Amino acid sequence: MSARVISVSSSDTHSFSKPARPFIRLLKGLGVEGDAHMGETVKHRSRVAVDPTQPNLRQVHLVHAEILQELRAAGFDVAEGTIGENVTTIGIDLLGLPRGTRLHLGPDAVIEVTGLRNPCIQLDNFQAGLTRAVLGRDENGELVRKAGVMAIVLEGGEVRPGDDIGIELPPEPYQKLERV
């Protein structure tokens, strides 16, 4: 199966879930046009409270459909966009990508993966137990965050469901994704 976009979402408010859209427009250096998290500096409220001048490394949130399927199988009522992502993908191991991976979304847009989404209490506010469900442990007992990855926009463009995703790995040695 080739990597592709299955859904795109945005919200102009700091609501948890984001409604599906027929397309989203990515703006270079800013994020998703019209989304509450768009901007050169941080827009997530907890980060703004600490330092509003921090660069926004969380302009675009991506979640793999496979985790949504896993969550539904565990009894959670989740669909594309409900856990706050802008782009829902299929056929790509988002969590296994190294930092700096460039993803080509559709004909024009290019984003760069900056790190992992850090699951927060908003997940449990949405559905009890959801935070724990998107956290795990690897074979070494290390915490594994499964709530998606964050990215910045390098080249703008429209992104639609059904668009192919091209993967451009950074030069080696690869750097493991950390929370951002």
UniProtKB/TrEMBL annotation:
Origin species, per record, is Kaistia dalseonensis
Family matches, as SUPFAM superfamilies: PK beta-barrel domain-like
Q: State what protein this is by name.
A: MOSC domain-containing protein YiiM
Taking every annotated instance into account, which residue ranges of this chain make up the domain MOSC?
18-168
Q: Any stretches that span the bilayer, and where are they?
A: none
The organism's superkingdom is given as Bacteria
